UniProtKB/TrEMBL annotation, chain A:
Stretches assigned to coiled coil: 145-183
Protein source organism: Streptomyces atroolivaceus
The protein's name: PP2C family protein-serine/threonine phosphatase
SMART domains the UniProt entry points to: PP2C_SIG (SM00331)
PAS domain residues: 27-79
A GO term, aspect molecular function: protein serine/threonine phosphatase activity
From TrEMBL, chain B:
PANTHER family, per the entry: ANTI-SIGMA FACTOR ANTAGONIST TM_1081-RELATED (PTHR33495:SF2), ANTI-SIGMA FACTOR ANTAGONIST TM_1081-RELATED-RELATED (PTHR33495)
Pfam families: STAS
Top-level taxonomy: Bacteria, Bacillati, Actinomycetota, Actinomycetes, Kitasatosporales
Coiled coil (residue ranges): none
Domain STAS: 16-101
Name assigned to this protein: Anti-sigma factor antagonist
InterPro entries: Anti-sigma_ant (IPR003658), STAS_dom (IPR002645), STAS_dom_sf (IPR036513)
């Protein structure tokens, strides 16, 4: 094996002999020397606690002379008040029960004041009849260890405080983000006479502000405006663009509700604001609703946004194409594509952001896509806006982790078989 | 999933940037840095070769717009070459097919060589 030192079968006798001699010389010298100068304290006490023998190491730690201690002091006289109590209630009973105790942490008093943290181990020595005769105790200086333990404890407290702080910070941040996110969306959709509206916002991550937005608001006595869009990027910068976009579109609509004009104003504002440096842009559909007899006329324009989906009462579902509309904000002047449709009773217009169509499905993580969305919509048997939103929300949830983007949904429809007073909407 | 790799090739008409791998939120910044570091002279043409682009989301589209702005600022042109189907679909929806010059990819035309 890897034994070092004296070899069991000496190949060169002379050398081994001299090594042994050196050890022997050391060992002969060592019994008393080891006892007195050992790196730990030794103590022998009678069964009543009187100190019978003590080594130099421990006397040095205590700062006392042998004459002061041997035969004059008891073991417990060396302990602090707390140490004495612990000795009487735990140490002594355990020792008398088991005949030994080990590794007990106590403080001993120094003669000049102050205390020394120690680790004590004791065994009782019995006479030939088995009666306990004396107690032998080793005393280890535990000041380094105690300091180390204190340091560990302190570090743990610091780490715990930091963790608590981090958790509180995170909570505050999430709260702020949630408030900010809510400020980017209407608290509730207003009731539109003769129509029903419903919406849903899917947040991909509570830590990151999404850039999707929508709104629905009155223009005048007869007309209502709506928009839905998606700002590029995420986080606070995207939220700032979303906020600017939302208020620009609202103000633009009041000035000139023509959908292309509203998007053009937004394009000018975004391009001027973000022309230099980091490009910020959005896709958006902006539209105006106007009641015309039993139907609602829809005029809308798109800037780089996926086409709106129209679900008819007869169960068909078709996109309302708006090809050629450009992302809003990347060029000083941009083309936007307008289109119109009419919604009769039972028809619903669905606006969505591309989180829905860009979701990944199945093991191959394929795009859900616009064909699947149209098919899903065509299969819906109930197409009232709140029913469409309910079904679409279920669809989004079914994507699980295949949906990693924020998604906004806005459905606008004309109630079927009901008086056209919008009784379905909260007033 | 492969990370993004970009190889710049200088040609007589301007730099050709061969982009391979995935272009998403985590890699788009890298492309933006590469592309804005390219020296362009007036009248040159910056070509982004997308033949080996496996995935591209809206962050990637933003990187293309950054490239376009960089080219425009230098009075240079920009073209996207060998645009994969899914990326082309995004470019059409967003109207960017009118903003970028789109060209089919032929390795010979780009002067691609083994030494890249």
């Amino acid at each position: 094996m890897c034994r070092t030192g004296p070899s069991p079968d000496p190949p060169e006798g002379g050398e081994t002999t001299s090594t042994d001699a050196a050890f022997t010389a050391l060992l002969e010298d060592s019994a008393d020397e080891l006892y007195e100068s050992a790196p730990c304290g030794y103590l022998s006490t009678l069964m009543d606690g009187t100190i019978a023998k003590i080594n130099t190491t421990l006397l040095t730690w205590l700062g006392r002379s042998r004459e002061e201690v041997v035969g004059r002091m008891r073991f417990t006289d060396l302990l602090t008040v707390g140490g004495k109590i612990y000795h009487d209630t735990h140490f002594a009973p355990l020792l008398s029960m088991q005949g030994s105790v080990s590794g007990i942490a106590l403080d001993i008093k120094k003669a000049e004041g102050g205390r020394l943290p120690v680790l004590l181990s004791s065994v009782t020595k019995n006479d030939s009849t088995g009666r306990p005769q004396l107690i032998r105790t080793t005393v280890f200086d535990a000041s380094d260890r105690r300091a180390y333990e204190r340091e560990l404890l302190r570090e743990r407290q610091v780490a715990e405080a930091a963790r608590t702080q981090a958790e509180e910070d995170r909570e505050r941040l999430q709260e702020a983000l949630a408030v900010l996110q809510q400020s980017l969306l209407p608290a509730a959709l207003p009731p539109v006479p003769g129509m029903e509206a419903a919406s849903h916002y899917h947040t991909a991550s509570p830590d990151r502000l999404g850039g999707d937005f929508y709104d629905l608001f009155p223009l005048d006595g007869k007309r209502w405006a709506f928009f839905l869009g998606d700002v590029c990027g995420k986080g606070p910068q995207a939220a700032a663009v979303t906020s600017l976009t939302r208020y620009t579109l609202r103000a633009a609509a009041l000035h000139d509700p023509d959908p292309v004009a509203a998007l053009t104003t937004l394009n000018t504002v975004l391009h001027e604001r973000y022309a230099a440096g980091d490009p910020r842009y959005c896709t958006a559909i902006f539209g105006v609703l106007e009641q015309a007899g039993d139907t609602v006329k829809v005029e809308l324009a798109s800037g780089g946004h996926p086409p709106a989906l129209v679900m008819r009462q007869d169960g068909s579902a078709e996109y309302l194409p708006t090809p050629g509309g450009l992302l809003v904000g990347i060029l000083p002047s941009a083309p936007f594509t307008a289109t119109t449709t009419e919604l009769a009773a039972g028809d619903t217009l669905l606006l969505y952001t591309d989180g829905l169509t860009e979701a990944r499905i199945g093991e191959e993580r394929e795009l859900f896509g616009d064909v699947a969305l149209r098919d899903f919509a065509a299969d819906l048997t109930h197409t009232a806006p709140h029913e469409v939103i309910e079904a679409m929300t279920g669809l989004l949830n079914s994507f699980g982790d295949g949906l990693d983007d924020d998604t906004a949904l806005l459905a606008l429809g004309v109630p079927t078989d009901r008086p056209d007073t919008g009784s379905d909407s909260p007033t | 999933m492969s990370p993004l790799t970009t190889i710049v090739q200088d040609t007589d008409t301007g730099p050709v940037l061969h982009i391979a791998g995935e272009l998403d939120y985590s890699t788009a910044a890298e492309l933006r840095e590469t592309v804005t570091g390219l020296a362009l002279r007036p009248g040159q043409r910056l070509v982004l070769d997308l033949a080996h682009l496996g995935f591209c989301d809206s962050s990637g589209i933003t990187a293309f717009i950054v490239a376009r702005n960089h080219a425009t600022a230098a009075q240079a042109e920009i073209a996207l070459v060998a645009v994969p189907g899914p990326v082309l679909r995004i470019l059409r929806v967003t109207g960017l097919d009118q903003v970028f010059s789109l060209e089919p990819g032929t390795d010979a035309q780009n002067g691609r060589t083994a030494s890249g």
